[in-house]
């Protein structure tokens, strides 16, 4: 069944979402895991503003930024070990304080009802991504989820989004990427999909400086953008 959805004059068969800052507000659990690690290392805790600004490049970069912000930066070998410990802390309790943003389940369900394929392309590691989607009741609405360690490259490299679209069986010109930061915008541009920015996430740059086709303040506004509401 051809999809009735259209964006920027083109038919849309798939929408790929970023995870942290777009579908889920996960900063509190990522921050708890980071602060537990820092405490073990005898370092100070991060503020929530720091945590939010460190999210978006995967676990290893988050730990690297956390160490650099609280004293001496870690060397590469130490960083590998610290990242493993951070991920263990995170996975031990990944959703206790994590919430799904308003209108997310309804929007994903509405897309699926229209026959649109739904993917997730996140720099969060694959195992944690799968566990979090399951725990928050979103797994059944996502046909393919690609974490930051699923392919040899990750966002903002086009290969991460193109790999996710391969799993969905959708060419880039019939897809839209929805995310919260500059990497999501850049990966959409590099892959050739439509680009939509949510304005409530963890962007590290002024939103006006991020090049996208549209900005939305709630996820269900996407349905209007795709001509699916009402
Ligand atoms: O930094 C992370 O772990 C993930 O961030 P993302 O879901 O926004 O890609
Ligand atoms: Mg994000």
Automatic annotation (TrEMBL):
Source species, domain of life: Bacteria
SUPFAM superfamilies assigned to the protein according to its UniProt record, in alphabetical order: HAD-like
Cellular component terms per the entry's GO annotation: cytosol
UniProt xrefs under PANTHER family: PHOSPHOGLYCOLATE PHOSPHATASE
EC number: 3.1.3.18
The protein's name: Phosphoglycolate phosphatase
Family assignment from sequence similarity: Belongs to the HAD-like hydrolase superfamily. CbbY/CbbZ/Gph/YieH family.
GO biological process, one term: glycolate biosynthetic process
A GO term for molecular function: metal ion binding
Record bears the keyword Magnesium: yes
Keywords assigned: Carbohydrate metabolism, Hydrolase, Magnesium, Metal-binding
Keyword Calcium attributed: no
HAMAP family noted in UniProt: GPH_hydrolase_bact
Residues of the active site: 18 (nucleophile)
Organism of derivation: Thalassobaculum fulvum
Catalytic activity: 2-phosphoglycolate + H2O = glycolate + phosphate
Binding site for Mg(2+): 18, 20, 180
Primary role: Specifically catalyzes the dephosphorylation of 2-phosphoglycolate. Is involved in the dissimilation of the intracellular 2-phosphoglycolate formed during the DNA repair of 3'-phosphoglycolate ends, a major class of DNA lesions induced by oxidative stress.
Pfam families documented for this protein: HAD_2
Needed cofactors: Mg(2+)
Metabolic or biological pathway, per its Swiss-Prot or TrEMBL entry: Organic acid metabolism; glycolate biosynthesis; glycolate from 2-phosphoglycolate: step 1/1
């Amino acid at each position: 069944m051809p999809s009735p959805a259209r964006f920027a004059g083109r038919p849309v068969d798939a929408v790929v979402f970023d995870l942290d800052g777009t579908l889920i507000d996960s900063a509190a659990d990522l921050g708890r895991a980071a602060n537990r690690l820092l405490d073990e290392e005898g370092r100070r805790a991060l503020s929530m503003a720091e945590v939010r600004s460190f999210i978006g490049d995967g676990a290893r970069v988050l730990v690297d930024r956390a160490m650099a912000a609280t004293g001496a930066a870690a060397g590469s070998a130490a960083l590998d070990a610290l990242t493993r410990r951070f991920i263990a802390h995170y996975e031990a309790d990944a959703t206790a304080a994590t919430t799904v943003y308003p209108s997310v389940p309804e929007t994903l369900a509405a897309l699926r009802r229209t026959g649109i394929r739904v993917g997730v392309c996140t720099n969060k590691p694959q195992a944690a991504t799968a566990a979090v989607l399951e725990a928050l009741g979103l797994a059944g609405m996502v046909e393919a989820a690609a974490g930051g360690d699923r392919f040899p490259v990750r966002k903002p490299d086009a290969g991460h989004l193109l790999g996710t679209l391969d799993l969905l069986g959708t060419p880039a010109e019939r897809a839209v990427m929805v995310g919260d930061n500059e990497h999501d915008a850049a990966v959409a541009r590099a892959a050739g999909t439509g680009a939509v920015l949510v304005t409530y996430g963890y962007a590290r740059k002024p939103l006006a400086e991020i090049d996208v086709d549209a900005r939305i303040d709630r996820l269900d506004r996407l349905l209007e953008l795709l001509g699916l509401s009402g």
